[in-house]
């Protein structure tokens, strides 16, 4: 009796087992039939590792808004309270903003200037020399390629509680950058201007002719006729005590120029470098003493190929370092590669006393979430660089700055996102992001 | 063994055989590449998935279409994989080799791309001159100057090749060889400012700074460029890639937009609106917004059009063009004040003759003649500048003379009048206009330079 019961039970289990196998096989067949076979194909895009020694906390700065279009971030003590603030240009809302860190660690947003059509750069300087910081805004006028006369230079003059606006230059093509300096050594601040334009552009310097009460008077002088001037950093490149101007010309010309100040408001043009690679995509120019030898070097991020309908990271994208070897000799060599590099900044990220370099990527193969949007290059003190991943989100970073926001002696990083193209997955887009050293 | 077990065993055996057949087919038959459809808007992703589902793995035409679509949507590794599949199938044509090469070029595989361009050349491809152009460009990207020059010289039928070769020659100390090439381009494209500028670079290299200056000024009065677009893909688009690019019209929001336009033409406006609203749910794309707003207006629904355009400003940021459309919609709805505010803002950011004309008309209708006159003056001024930039100097002078008679305090109007008269060799009038400009704005650097050039000798 017992044996018969046992057999029945076994048979039942066998039945269940066979039915389960049959069902499992049927499900597998259905799954195979429904999903066509796929094979993974990869582009050859390098992905660095994160540094095991240097770690950052990532935070979002300020509230979210639609139309994420941050064109510039800068780290500066705007209100002179001893702690660093962030100044940003928002081309989605057409304004210049500041972010002040409250004692509780929250970032408070303040609008410094509105109705500025596509601000490309905000330069913080005491232009009227009254002891507080004003802002000179480079107004692009149109974020899309345009040769129209829509560019402007606008002064946001600090009047304590608010900033008043004065147009310093108009009737020019798209303005990408303005930097101050007393070029004619008459005691006031003049301005160097990059009129990017599109297929026509120029580099100017504006001679400060004083404030007549009705506003500043600036006289424009032309330094170069070329389309695609992005940045005009100012510094004493030849160590002769006066201020020179440098610029990077993009738009297929890909030339690095310096304007040597020869006194009395006169400049000598010097082409320091060009690339036959018309497609290299010069994306900006940073003046800094990278090797800390007492003279000013130049960092040239390359990777702006926004003219292509479907962009893709290229092997020649990355950053060049032009070492100032004196007597107007600048020796260029690559620091490292990052597809779609759009901006660079230098700072001591690991606290070892030398200058490291951060690069951010605007265009990459974003279909692979592992591809980097920001990397940093660790300087070993001999200007040899190790590549580390900083982050993979937010994507489409167009601007970056370094500064010690948390006052721990190491540089932190702030970057801004310019979301103009797919992907439309907004989870990977973020306006302003800071990576705080810890 | 009970009957049920026998039946189950038979089923299992049959299923195992089916599984083995399927598995074998999967291993041995070509598979589609893995694609992250999340990069696309839902409508486009849906259309691409449908095309993928209809792929016949033995049909090279199907692979070719998938390759082109992947490439045009920026899925380059996937496109490269498909082009390789076509290559492994019996040949129907070798057209794919050229596009395969473009794909590799865009991925930065420059040497590999050039190998394919050479292969396309060996098959006497229809795209032969373009192959040489791309080979030249890739050598330039690799900074291989001699090879670049050789290749570009074989592509001189294409204006872009002449331009690239000219730049190379100028930079290698051969401006004298570049200038004849650029003169040919000037004859072919007399209003191309990029040619003017390149010629100015050549003149500068030769030390002829006066000629360089003249060419730079000419570039400001020529509105066009040689027909290249701005990148290698665009270059091919002009002549060779047009058919491939038409694929885009068959996918995603572009397909729906085309459908909506057709429906509208056939009088099925409601259906067209339904499709466009569906497009906007998938992706807020400006061509769809513009068409939809027009259709709302057609159906006498101006308020709906206003809401749509206002939402667009919120979503994609404010542009002068969108502000103008919004203003136009307010004007149609009879809301003149709102329209004027928006036209004013659009004109502040990007003044145009048309925007000021609209304001002038509206102020005239409202009886505000002072403001109407001001905007008429600005309309004339911007019309004059437009004519100046198109090198229509007589028209420009006419408009600018009228502008300064309406707005005698307008610095820029006097400046452009002065420039126009200088280029027309009407020196006295030019001098007067520069002087008036400088009275109004003593720091006007360009006016000072113009005045200096007026008194400089003209012989080169």
Structure write-up:
- The complex is a heterodimer of chains A (438) and B (460).
- Helices cover 8% and strands 44% of the residues of chain A.
- Chain A is built from 1 helix and 29 strands.
- Chain A has one helix at 2-34; strands at residues 38-39, 56-61, 70-76, 85-90, 95-101, 107-113, 119-125, 134-139, 151-158, 163-172, 175-181, 190-195, 202-211, 216-225, 234-235, 244-249, 255-263, 266-274, 286-288, 297-302, 318-324, 330-337, 341-347, 356-361, 374-379, 385-391, 397-403, 412-417, 432-437.
- Chain A is elongated.
- By secondary structure, chain B is mainly α.
- Helix content of chain B is 75%, strand content 0%.
- Chain B is built from 26 helices and 1 strand.
- Chain B has helices at 3-28, 42-53, 60-72, 76-88, 95-106, 110-122, 128-141, 145-153, 159-171, 175-188, 193-205, 209-219, 232-239, 242-245, 252-265, 269-282, 286-298, 302-316, 320-332, 336-349, 353-366, 369-389, 393-406, 411-423, 427-440, 445-455, and one strand at residues 32-33.
- The N and C termini of chain B lie far apart (110 Å).
- Chains A and B meet through helix 1, strand 1, strand 13 and strand 14 of A and helix 1, strand 1, helix 4, helix 7 and helix 9 of B.
- Strand 1 (38-39) of chain A pairs parallel with strand 1 (32-33) of chain B, so a sheet runs across the interface.
């Amino acid at each position: 009796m017992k044996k018969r019961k046992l057999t029945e039970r076994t048979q039942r289990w066998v039945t269940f087992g066979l039915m389960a196998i049959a069902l499992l096989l049927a499900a597998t067949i259905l799954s195979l039939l429904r999903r066509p076979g796929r094979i993974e194909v990869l582009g050859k895009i390098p992905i660095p590792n994160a540094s095991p020694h240097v770690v950052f906390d990532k935070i979002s700065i300020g509230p979210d808004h639609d139309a994420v279009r941050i064109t510039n971030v800068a780290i500066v003590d705007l209100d002179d309270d001893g702690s660093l603030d962030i100044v940003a240009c928002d081309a989605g809302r057409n304004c210049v903003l500041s972010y002040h860190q409250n004692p509780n660690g929250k970032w408070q947003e303040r609008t410094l200037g509105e109705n500025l059509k596509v601000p490309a750069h905000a330069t913080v300087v005491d232009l009227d020399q009254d002891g507080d910081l004003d802002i000179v805004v480079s107004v692009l006028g149109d974020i899309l390629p345009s040769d129209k006369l829509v560019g402007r230079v606008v002064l946001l003059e600090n009047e304590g509680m608010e900033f008043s606006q004065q147009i310093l230059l108009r009737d020019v093509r798209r303005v990408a950058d303005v930097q101050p300096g007393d070029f004619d050594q008459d005691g006031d601040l003049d301005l160097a201007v990059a009129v990017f334009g599109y297929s026509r552009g120029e580099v100017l310097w504006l001679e400060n002719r004083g404030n007549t009460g009705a506003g500043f008077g600036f006289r424009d002088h032309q330094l170069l006729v070329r389309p695609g001037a992005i940045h005009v950093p100012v510094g004493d490149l030849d160590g002769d005590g006066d201020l020179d101007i440098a610029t990077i010309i993009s738009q297929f010309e890909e030339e690095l120029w310096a304007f040597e100040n020869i006194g009395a408001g006169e400049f000598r043009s010097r082409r320091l470098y060009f690339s036959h690679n018309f497609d290299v995509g010069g994306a900006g120019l940073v003046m800094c003493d990278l090797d800390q030898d007492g003279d000013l070097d130049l960092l040239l991020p390359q990777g702006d190929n926004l003219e292509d309908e479907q962009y893709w990271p290229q092997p020649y994208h990355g950053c060049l370092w032009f070492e100032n070897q004196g007597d107007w000799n600048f020796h260029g060599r690559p620091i490292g590669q990052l597809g779609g590099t759009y901006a660079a900044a230098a700072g001591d990220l690991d606290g070892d006393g030398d200058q490291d370099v951060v690069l951010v990527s605007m265009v990459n193969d974003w279909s692979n979430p592992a591809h980097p949007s920001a990397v940093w290059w660790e300087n070993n003190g001999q200007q040899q660089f190790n590549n580390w991943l900083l982050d993979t989100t937010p994507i489409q970073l167009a601007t970056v700055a370094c500064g010690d926001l948390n006052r721990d002696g190491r540089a932190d990083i702030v970057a801004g996102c310019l979301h103009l193209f797919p992907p439309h997955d907004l989870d990977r887009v973020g306006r302003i992001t800071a990576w705080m050293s810890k | 063994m009970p009957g049920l077990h026998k039946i189950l065993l038979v089923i299992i055996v049959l299923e195992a055989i089916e599984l083995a057949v399927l598995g074998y087919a999967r291993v041995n038959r070509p598979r589609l590449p893995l694609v992250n459809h999340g990069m696309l808007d839902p409508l486009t992703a849906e259309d691409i998935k449908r095309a993928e589902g209809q792929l016949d793995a033995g049909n090279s035409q199907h692979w070719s279409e998938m390759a082109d679509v992947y490439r045009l949507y920026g899925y380059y590794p996937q496109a490269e994989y498909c082009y390789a599949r076509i290559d492994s199938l019996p040949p129907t044509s070798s057209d794919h080799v050229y596009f395969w090469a473009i794909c590799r070029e865009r991925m930065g595989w420059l040497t590999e791309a050039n190998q394919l361009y050479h292969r396309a050349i060996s098959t006497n491809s229809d795209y032969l001159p373009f192959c040489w152009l791309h080979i030249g460009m890739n050598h330039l990207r690799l900074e291989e100057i001699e090879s670049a020059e050789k290749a570009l010289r074989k592509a001189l039928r294409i204006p872009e090749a002449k331009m690239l070769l000219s730049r190379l020659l100028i930079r290698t100390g051969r401006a004298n060889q570049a200038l004849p090439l650029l003169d040919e381009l000037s004859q072919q494209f007399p209003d191309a400012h990029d040619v003017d500028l390149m010629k100015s670079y050549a003149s500068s290299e030769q030390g002829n700074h006066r000629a360089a200056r003249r060419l730079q000024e000419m570039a400001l009065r020529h509105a066009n460029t040689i027909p290249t677009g701005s990148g290698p893909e665009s270059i091919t688009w002009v002549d060779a890639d047009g058919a491939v690019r038409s694929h885009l019209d068959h996918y995603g929001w572009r397909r729906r937009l085309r459908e909506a336009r057709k429906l509208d033409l056939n009088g099925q406006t409601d259906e067209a609106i339904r499709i466009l609203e569906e497009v906007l749910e998938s992706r807020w794309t400006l061509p769809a917004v513009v068409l939809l707003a027009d259709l709302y207006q057609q159906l006498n629904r101006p308020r709906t059009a206003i809401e749509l355009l206002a939402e667009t400003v919120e979503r994609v940021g404010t542009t002068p063009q969108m502000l103008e459309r919004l203003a136009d919609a307010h004007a149609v709805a009879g809301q003149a004040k709102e329209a004027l505010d928006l036209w004013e803002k659009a004109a502040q950011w990007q003044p145009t003759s048309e925007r000021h004309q609209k304001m002038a008309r509206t102020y005239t209708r409202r009886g505000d003649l002072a403001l109407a006159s001001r905007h008429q003056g600005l309309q004339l001024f911007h019309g004059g500048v437009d004519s100046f930039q198109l090198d229509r100097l007589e028209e420009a002078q006419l408009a600018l003379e009228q502008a300064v008679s309406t707005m005698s305090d307008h610095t820029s109007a006097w400046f452009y009048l002065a420039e126009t008269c200088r280029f027309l060799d009407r020196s006295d009038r030019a001098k007067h206009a520069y002087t008036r400009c400088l009275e109004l704005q003593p720091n006007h650097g360009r006016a000072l330079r113009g005045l200096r050039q007026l008194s400089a000798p003209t012989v080169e």
